[in-house]
Predict the 3D structure of the following.
Amino acid sequence: MVPPFASEGESPKYIDFLFVFVIFFIDMKLPKNKSLTELSRNLRKNSTLAESVLWKYLQNKKAFGFRFHRQKVIGNYIVDFYCPGLKLVIEIDGSSHDNKYEHDKKRDEYLHSLGLTVLHIDNFDVLHCIDKGLFAIDTYMRYKINELHK
């Protein structure tokens, strides 16, 4: 039987996307420190090489069919990438994260308290073996879609 919102022969991925899309709209609004908005804009304009490379795969729903935001303000933090449909934060860990273990841990705990999942991808992996990073993102997305269907 075909659901009313899908036509005959529709791919399951499309149905999964619609299911997750509906979940997004009934979800809570994330807190935002508006004083970080300008800094967030500046970070988008001056992305690192690794951020630019990964953004090419994530923008316009190219790679995974989900919308991503770049340099998104969540609470008192700015995350590298955020997918609202899956409540997924992606952080690229490069030299800016060196010697910031406690800060990163505190940020991750805060994001987890909001029901978000944080996926860390090494800067080197994005620049030299992008397939490894994309595989990690794809694996998580498939897992999350399966969890939402339960």
Q: What stands out?
A: The beta strands are 69-74, 77-83, 88-93, 117-122. The domain at 12-149 is CATH 3.40.960.10 (Endonuclease; Chain A). Residues 25 and 37 are 23 Å apart (CA to CA). Confidence is low (pLDDT under 50) at residues 1-26.
